[in-house]
User: What shape does this take?
Amino acid sequence: MYGSIPVLRLPRWVTTYAATTYFFALAIVSLIYLSHCLPWYFMVSGGLSVTLFFLYGRQLTREMSVRNVRKPSNFAYRVFVLSFILRIATVLMLYWIFLWYYDHPFGFEDADATYYDSLGAFVADLMRDGNFHFYTEIARWSGHEDVSDMGYGIYLGLVYLLTGRSVLAARVLKCVWSSLTVVLVYRLAQRNFGEQIARVAALFCALWPNFWYYCTAHLKETEMVFLIVLYIEQADQMLRSRQFTAWKIIPVLLIAALIFTFRTPLGLVALLALVFALVMSSSRIVSWGKRVIVGLLAVTLIGVGAGERIEERVNILIEKVRGGEQRSNMEWRSEREHGNVFAKYASSAVFAPMIFTLPFPTMVEPYEGQYAQQMLNGGNYIKNIMSFFTILALFTLLLSGYWRNHALILGVTLGYVVVLTLSSFAHSERFHQPVMPFEFVFMAYGLTVAMTDKKYKRWFFWWCGIMLLAAVLWNLFKMKGQGV
Assistant: This one.
């Protein structure tokens, strides 16, 4: 099924259409709102992002193909080094820029970043004092009992304890975790779709600039993405392993428990994805005996370890959905200072058809702020345009029936985007981070499908036209909604 393409790489028609569409969209938006166009340095960051991903990506997918790099271990090493160089270079550059421009290293919109910095320093002090009652102390310090931030706070506290509260050391570690995530994506895709698709998926992850940015931000996204990819990769390996023992599931469930301490809904999705895979996977992938053993162990460990707390969080999330939290949040966004008056019309019905494509790029400067969104305009555009292949892959798998061979990846991807659609953050780029590695896997497979039939080249051309229109309309929507 997956071996029909001799050498899988980004074809010229993809890179040409995609890059040209971006520069057309940027030019049109800038001409319409000349007095509010992007600052030149954000235009440069967007242009470089698109150029590196598509033009350099086309070269890399050819140079690192199965034909040119024959040993998988050599490819894994090379893609790790490439990922680390790109990330550490971004970290050092933005660290210096932040210090020079803001007199602190926490970036443009630093509210959450400074909170985590203070939380990490507090936990480091607890460790120095020999006080390891983290849950009680963090709940008292923060004023809430939600475990969703405690995992990252404890991790950051340990880093601060060992490095003397070095912000730069924490970000260098983020480069390591993010680069390891790329290698894990390679292994996961290799096991599911074969060597060629795995290499393209890994290169997509290595080259996507939004992953670089979160290595420079003092936020939990990089570590959280690493944990969810590690969990799915290890769970997939466990389910497919012929030499299966009951003890193989314990590390997987421990990783799931860690994810709960970073973001509770993501932890729930992780566990439900495992249950989905156990029930729906092809019997050639997961035997019935393995389903029973894994299921019983998972229920036992989860029930004994955190059953009540998980049930409590599930009930809270359900009540939020029933209580119309999304609608209330959108109304608040439309009424706040610098809010968009059209935001109140957004809902799950609006987000759902576009959830694999969102968020659209910010190519204007509506007011003082939103610097991160402006800088990431190129990365968001890459997601918009390449979502064509993600959607194509999902439809192909679902219609062909082969989806049962990849139930775990499908479960976590579809589960998370459903949660995202029902939340208030469907158009928040930051909240799309955990699912992006899996979307890149499907994206690489979708590219394989597109190279088997010339009609998809024509479809992609029309998709680029739709994305050009969407980018222009989104920026008009932003400006009109704020009265510009």
